[in-house]
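pasting input
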Amino acid sequence: MTDRPEAIIEVNSLTAGYPGRPVLEQVSFQVYQGEVFVIIGRSGSGKSTLLKHLIGLNPPLAGTIRIEGVDLGSVRGRDRRRLLRSFGVLYQSGALFGSMTVLENVRLPLDEFTELPPAAKDFVALSKLKLVGLATAAQSLPAELSGGMQKRAAIARAMALDPRILFLDEPSVGLDPITSAGLDELIKRLADDFAITFVIVTHELESIYRIASRLIMVDDRSRAIIAEGKPADLRDHATDPRVRRFFLRQPDSDVAVSPTQTL
Amino acid sequence: MRPCVLMQPQDQSVSRVAIQVEEHPAGHAKVTLEGRLDSETAGPWWRDLEKRLQARPITSLEVDASRLDLQGGIGIALLRFIQDGAMTPRASVTISGLSPTRQKIMEVFTREDFRTHQARRPERLSFATEVGVVTRAMLKDVGEQVTFIGAVVRAVPGVIIRPKRLRWQEVKRVLESAGANALPMVALFSWLVGLVLALEAAHPLAKLGAQIFIADMIGFASIRDTGPLVTAIMLAGRSGSAFAAELGTMKVNEELDALKTMGLEPVRFLVIQRVLAAMLLSPLLALYAMAMGILGGVMVMRFLGFPPRMIFHQILGRVQVGDLSVGLLKSLLFGLIIGGVGCLRGLQTKQGARAVGDSTTRSVVACIILIILANTLFSAVDYFLTRPS
């Protein structure tokens, strides 16, 4: 691809982690408008930490993150609120508010940030639920929904204010393969219909092949991005043994051989 | 370096939707929209349009959206809402100028969905039904309390036979957080109660020339009533609530289920320690509270000019070992109530973050009611038992 669309997220020499305990050092990458960008890595490799920096929950230890050209680290006040509204986040557990119905959950951002009359807000919230196929569950409490439905409801809430970017933290964790595939379909459809840019943290190989337009792989031992590219290219042509092992689902050499096998 | 702002136009006119309304004869109107319709501009736009369409005899409305920059679902949904007659209930509405994709998305939402699934107001119950519901809940609660007491009692012999199985580490932790850390507060509270009681009694007793009896009163009140009661209320607020919140959170996080599947009974594993700690603590703290209460009274008497020897002689001559044992016995019972109710409310927690808050409130309310009731019962029984015949 020669003519790239413009970068919607630019990460420059970011050091991610917690004060005194950096997880990733000096990483740089771009996410382009309209793509489904996936961050992969093994458990504990710093994927979720990186995501926390990208959504502004943790300040960068060093380096900058620009979303739509605005520096996330230095923007304050009204501009910061506006920037935060330009993206939605799906947390690993869904993080739906348990005491509210699904419809109320989706309506909450509309109540807080728009000045529409109540009936119009209900209509918009319901239309979001309809988009994720959950209009019939509007009056249910989150606890009454299955895991996959909770994830979809949380996506509807994340989309309530029409964000241009959606961050998803391990969306398919705890879901069966069929539900997980359905969720991938939904992500693809939303990306196409609404030109939403997705940034997804996951380690589900199936899901990566289905949805990712591009991915990066982070590694906590070298504290760096060790691979970047399209999933099929990385699977077939990666030379780094750590990347190959991930795509071929091979265990580490030190845990692969159990004592009984050496006997 | 200042951040460069690319996508956020500061000019208000750019981020507002321009509305043009043309009115034709025979009730036909055409609305032309231009600008960006997103979460920020939607509210003012809706109000503006509503104002301009109000009070016009419109029978057919055409909305031209071809120059509208639709950012996402909100704009499309609102156009659909207008098409369904949200603004002009009696007019036929057509939306034109949408791209085929947008048109397709708009077709997805229907008025039917809205009618069926929009927020319903909870129906009001009749008085009789409400009484029934509350009574049933209370009976169920009593049943659960009896079951719980049974479970605690059943777990006691096991602990006596094999005390090592009790997790003493946990008992120690509770003793520290609920006991040692509560000392300053209990001290302040009881000392002030003693002080106030003595001050209030000083003037009336002076009229009778009986101020020396402040000593008797403070001794009796602190040892038999205020000491144990103040301690218990303090414990209920500080520690009974903490028990409920701890166990409630564990229940919400499925930790209690994890214990059960490991073959460990939550009552033996979590409750006994807390009940035991509360029962140990309550009399000890009460003893401390009694001393502080008497100290407060003595300070007032010193202020009134009584010599220390006279005050102590008066107190010791009146208050007997029996009074102290009544106070301590009460405290022991209060400790049992606080530990038991706190843990029970924790175990009864339902799902969700709010449930933990509910359990905490319920535990404090129930503890204080039971403590006051038990205290009254004690006083009444004691009065009739020790009545001079």
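fyi Chain A is about 40% helix and 25% strand.
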